[in-house]
Write a structure and sequence with these properties.
Elements: H1 24-36, E1 43-46, H2 52-59, E2 66-68, H3 72-85, E3 91-92, H4 97-100, E4 105-109, H5 114-127, E5 133-139, H6 145-152, E6 155-160, E7 167-175, E8 186-189, E9 194-197, H7 209-217, E10 259-263, H8 269-277, E11 282-287, H9 290-302, E12 309-313, E13 325-330, E14 335-336, E15 339-340, H10 343-355, E16 356-367, H11 373-379, E17 383-388, E18 392-398
Parallel strand pairs: 1-2, 1-4, 2-3, 4-5, 10-11, 10-13, 11-12, 13-16
Antiparallel strand pairs: 5-7, 6-7, 8-9, 14-15, 16-18, 17-18
Length: 400
């Protein structure tokens, strides 16, 4: 079709020469719809990273398309791309009945996570029309037989088609009867910390190893949550850091409750652990993933701290005030979709620098091979190593 895919942009997400705002899978999915010709109100689009599918179909005359994007950056990119192309007539939804009720054709960019795919497939079978057709697509190098098996749990027939332009479509039809309770969210207990997770949340209800290392260094690890974290004096690499600084004061110069931000919160393990250990702290958790945000909110409820942990769906804490935080906790990603790229971490380091007051502290855990210490020093301030293993490094950066 004659749609200007090349004009689409990823912003506010990371942009680079090897990162595009559309791929061949988007084009295959659009071409499939054009060959079928259903009315727009019967189409739901899931996982449209930057709006390529939605906008191409809207430009072709399909009105009333419903779209769900997990990432806040994708939602903003879609809105900006639509504005620049002068396109309207589609509606954004969460992954719920409002997205899928009455839908007869669902287009899906296959997610990386099998758990996320399972939650999506169940949602389509649960809420869409009984004659719905789910057309899922992905790049061949990222597709597995396991994805077909997951789809087969919710659909009677799953058929993979021949690859075109290094992408492939998989068609699922005849939704099966769904269980009374959906498969997600799931929950797991970790010695005093309960994690709740939707399918699209990183690490699910597990406590991922990087987060565990940071919790242990800050003396916030499961089964030993406490407020008297040792190790604030002397060499910080000799013991856990004091993540409850006495420097936070109110306007009168007296001690004030610290303001803590969990940047890229995932399922909320860091935010909730800090709130459990420090009942006087005000904790804000933010993530660009809607699945992560829903998970973190549920985790806060499960641990009885929902009144002290505020969770927002946002891009790099953009809605939080400048220089308002005493502490930022960060376990940054090193992937953008299926691409290995450090740009996501850099954006979060920049965000931490903006959010912290002068003298505020950023605690970061990252893969030791990435060597972020110099970048943290450049973007945030003086950075020291608190802990290092062959796999992970924990640092503390003081906002200059």
């Amino acid at each position: 079709m004659d749609f200007p895919f090349s004009r689409l942009r990823r912003r506010p997400d990371v942009e680079a020469d090897n990162l595009q705002a559309h791929d061949a899978t988007d084009v295959l999915l659009v071409d499939r719809v054009l060959s079928l010709g259903p009315v727009g109100a019967e189409i739901a689009v899931i996982g449209d990273d930057y709006g390529a599918i939605t906008l191409a179909l809207t430009a072709a005359g399909f009105d009333g398309i419903r779209v769900h994007q997990d990432l806040a950056t994708g939602r903003r990119a879609l809105a900006r791309n639509a504005d620049e192309l002068g396109l309207a007539g589609f509606a954004a939804h969460e992954l719920d009945a409002s997205l899928l009720s009455g839908a007869r054709l669902v287009l899906l960019q296959l997610p990386k996570s099998l758990a996320e795919l399972e939650e999506i497939a169940d949602a389509v079978a649960r809420w869409a029309a009984r004659d719905v057709v789910l057309v899922a697509g992905g790049r061949v190098k990222h597709m597995t037989v396991a994805q077909n098996e997951v789809l087969g749990r919710s659909f009677e027939h799953v058929q993979a088609e021949r690859a075109e332009r290094k992408s492939r479509l998989v068609v699922a039809t005849e939704p099966k009867e769904v269980p009374v309770e959906p498969p997600f969210p799931v929950r797991a207990d970790h010695d005093g910390l309960t994690l709740v997770a939707h399918g699209g949340a990183f690490a699910g209800a597990r406590l991922d190893i990087g987060t565990r290392v940071l919790l242990d260094v800050l003396a916030l690890g499961p089964s030993r949550l406490r407020t008297d974290a040792p190790g604030s004096a002397g060499n910080p690499s000799d013991g856990p850091a004091d993540a409850h600084p006495s420097g936070a004061t109110d306007g009168a110069g007296t001690s004030a409750a610290p303001i803590v931000v969990d940047l890229g919160c995932g399922t909320g393990a860091l935010a909730v652990s800090y709130a459990l250990a420090h009942p006087d702290a005000r904790v804000s958790a933010t993530d660009r993933s809607a699945a992560a945000v829903a998970s973190a909110r549920a985790t806060a409820v499960a641990n009885g701290v929902a009144d002290r942990v505020t969770v927002t769906h946002d891009d790099a804490g953009s809605a939080l005030p400048d220089a308002g935080a005493d502490i930022v906790l960060l376990n940054p990603p090193f992937h953008l979709g299926t691409s290995v790229h450090t740009g996501a971490a850099t954006r979060l380091f920049d965000a931490a620098a903006r959010l912290l007051r002068p003298g505020g502290e950023l605690f970061t855990v990252y893969n030791s091979s990435l060597g972020y210490r110099a970048e943290l020093t450049r973007l945030v301030g003086a950075t020291e190593q608190l802990h290092r293993t062959a796999k992970f490094t924990v640092t503390r950066s003081i906002r200059r």
